[in-house]
Amino acid sequence: QVQLVESGGGLAQPGGSLRVSCTASARLSSFIGMAWYRQVPGKQRELVAYFASGGIANYSDSVKGRFSISGDGVKNTMYLQMNSLKPEDTAAYYCSFLRTTIRGQGTQVTVSA
Q1: Which residues sit opposite 78 in a β-bridge?
Q2: Nearest to 26 by CA among 76, 94, 93
Q3: Whose CA is closest to 27, among 84, 66, 73, 67?
Q4: What is the widest separation between alpha-carbon atoms in the chain?
Q5: What is the pLDDT of residues 55-110, one digit of tens each?
Q6: What are the φ and ψ backbone dihedral angles of 30, each rounded to 5 degrees?
């Protein structure tokens, strides 16, 4: 069973940056693409970024121009670089593979002064 482990969350100030990572127990190339979601308690889960293999990255309007998704096939790790953070980016961030129900345990990102 494929496992995903997120890390790198924490506290950041508005306007700051964080990078969250997600290490997979399988090769990234085994899947058609990867994605990052976020969720705030009581709200619907939001797809913030995804990358289909061989394609281009896509972002939700709320993070476009500030977040960047990438992957390292050697390390089997995907990343979400988050810049110009806003308080509304506060959420638990989860990684996943496209068209699967595989999901990590999440890492909390809190943006606050």
Answers
A1: 22, 71
A2: 76
A3: 73
A4: 40
A5: 789 999 999 999 999 999 999 999 999 999 999 999 999 999 998 999 999 999 99
A6: -75, -10
Q: Which residues contact 83 (CB under 8 A, 6 or more apart)?
A: 17, 66, 67, 68
- The mean of the pLDDT values for the chain is 94
**Structure tokens belonging to residue 104:** 């990590």
Rounded CA separation 102/1 (Å)? 9
Positive or negative: CA dihedral 95, 57, 14, 39: negative
User: How many other CB atoms are there within 10 angstroms of residue 31's CB atom?
Assistant: 19
Judged by DSSP in three states, 89 sits in: helix
Structural tokens at position 86: 């806003």
The helix/strand/coil state of 28 is helix
C-alpha–C-alpha distance, residues 110 and 113, integer Å:
10
